[in-house]
Structure formats: C-alpha cells, structure tokens
TrEMBL record:
InterPro entries linked to this entry: Metallo-B-lactamas, RibonucZ/Hydroxyglut_hydro
Gene3D superfamilies: Ribonuclease Z/Hydroxyacylglutathione hydrolase-like (3.60.15.10)
A molecular function GO annotation: 3'-tRNA processing endoribonuclease activity
Xref: CDD domains: metallo-hydrolase-like_MBL-fold
Residue intervals of the Metallo-beta-lactamase domain: 20-208
Upper classification of the organism: Bacteria, Bacillati, Bacillota, Negativicutes, Selenomonadales
Coiled-coil intervals, chain numbering: none
Domain of life assignment: Bacteria
SUPFAM superfamilies: Metallo-hydrolase/oxidoreductase
One Pfam family from the record: Anti-Pycsar_Apyc1
Protein name: Ribonuclease BN (tRNA processing enzyme)
Signal peptide limits: none
Length: 246
C-alpha cells in the first residue's frame, strides 16, 4: 500500500471557485498528518468523514490564515466534541506558537489557557532546518511570501515516500532543492499567466519544469483566473476531496 493524499481544501484565501482553504491529509497506513490547516479545515473533515482524532501531526508552511487558522477550531473540537486523548504535534516556522495563541485568543478568548486532556506540542523550525517527529522527517526551505514570520516550502519524508510542497511563494531556487527526487510536488499555481507578487503562476512553473525533478506534479491554491484555464494545462490539479496515491 502506498501513501494516500487527500485534498481537504484546494482553494485560495478568498474561496475562489467555492473551494475550501488549503489543507491536505496524508495517510501512511500507520499514521495520518495534515499539511497546512486553513480556517475551513474542520468543515472539510466533517464533509469528507475524516476523524480528527486520527491525525497525529500538523505541518504548517506559513502563518497566513488560509494555511494555519484552522488550528484553533481543531483544538477546541478536540477538547469539546471529539474528546481527544492522544498527543497532538504542530510543526511550523519560527513564530508559530505565539501566532496560534494570538489566533485562539482573538477567536475564542481564554481558549489558549484552557487545560486540555491531551498534550499539544508546538515545534518551530528555522527556514532551512529539519527535524524528526512522530516518525516523519521534515525539511523546510525559505521562500518569498511575507507573512509576518518566515514562510517556507516543505519536504516531508513519510513511510518511504517524499512529499514536496511549495507553500505560497513566487519562484525561488529553493523550490528546486525541495522538489528534487520527490515522489510528488504539490505546487501553488495561484494564477494561469498573470504575475502576482509573492505567488506562483502556471506559466512560471512550466518555464522551470525541467528544474523541478519531482516524479509527479499536482497544482493547488488556484484563483478564478487559474480555474478558468484548467482546460489549458498539461498536468494534474487538485480539487476538494480528491484523493491520490503515491
């Protein structure tokens, strides 16, 4: 059995195309983790019948709301509805812990101080650093996408497979290193051919296609311009609920 990836959310920050915000579920067979956890992540889990208690780890690429702001809802659900008892690990860039605390206090005052019946550990990873957690090896790479803290691309090794993810960024040479030899590269393709500062577009990705030496490429985080041009592209693209195996 391979590693299964399900796109719980494949949209941008603005709900383009009615899509949910960025969140990917990875199932190794022995464990499950999330890559990014946008504000609509818990809605997607309910829609696609994902048990949040089976998720051991959440990896965050950067600290914009459409990529991490599902965490306060996830933690409150774990405490009040799903009755979680297993530990939860969150891994993100420098500044993750304080941003999560701030978000919890804005959304649900006092919630960051509530004692839970499960432990929550938050690890902060330098851009360019790596770590091992819950049997997964993660490496982060600096990218160009201002978010109030370092934004990163991610490379995650799990169950003998390598998943690379651009996060949100304009073109950076660090993406070449992140993608090299990966079983799959999940790449932002925010627009089709319009250059949007701090974001990737389809034409730019194709221009650098020979440099991105991943075995498979799938596009996500698409705006209306990109969605209107899906018939003009030559690679796979994500949709909410779509599952693939690597």
């Amino acid at each position: 059995m391979g590693v299964r990836i399900q796109f719980l959310g494949s949209g941008d920050a603005f709900g383009s195309g009615g899509r949910l915000q960025t969140c990917m579920l990875v199932d190794t067979g022995a464990d499950k983790f999330l890559i990014d956890c946008g504000a609509s992540a818990l809605i997607a889990m309910r829609k696609y019948q994902v048990n949040p208690n089976e998720i051991s780890t959440i990896f965050i690429s950067h600290l914009h709301g459409d990529h991490f702001c599902g965490i306060p809802f996830f933690i409150l659900d774990a405490q009040m509805i799903s009755k979680r008892t297993a530990p939860l690990a969150i891994v993100g860039p420098i500044g993750t812990k304080q941003r999560i605390v701030n978000a919890m206090e804005v959304l649900f005052p006092g919630s960051s101080q509530t004692e839970q019946k499960f432990s929550v550990s938050i690890r902060e990873l330098d851009a360019g650093g790596s770590d091992d957690i819950n049997g997964f090896h993660i490496t982060s790479y600096p990218v160009a996408h201002p978010s109030g803290s370092p934004s990163t691309a991610l490379r995650i090794e799990a169950a003998g497979k390598v998943i690379a993810y651009t996060g949100d960024t304009e073109w950076q040479e660090s993406l070449v290193t992140a993608a090299r030899g990966a079983d799959i590269l999940i790449a932002e393709s925010y627009s089709f051919n319009k250059k949007v500062k701090f974001h990737l577009d389809y034409h730019t990705l194709m221009e650098h296609g020979n440099e991105l030496e991943a075995k498979r490429l799938i596009l996500t985080h698409m705006n209306d311009n990109m969605l209107a041009n899906l018939h003009n592209i030559s690679c796979e693209y994500a949709e909410d609920g779509k599952g693939i195996e690597i």
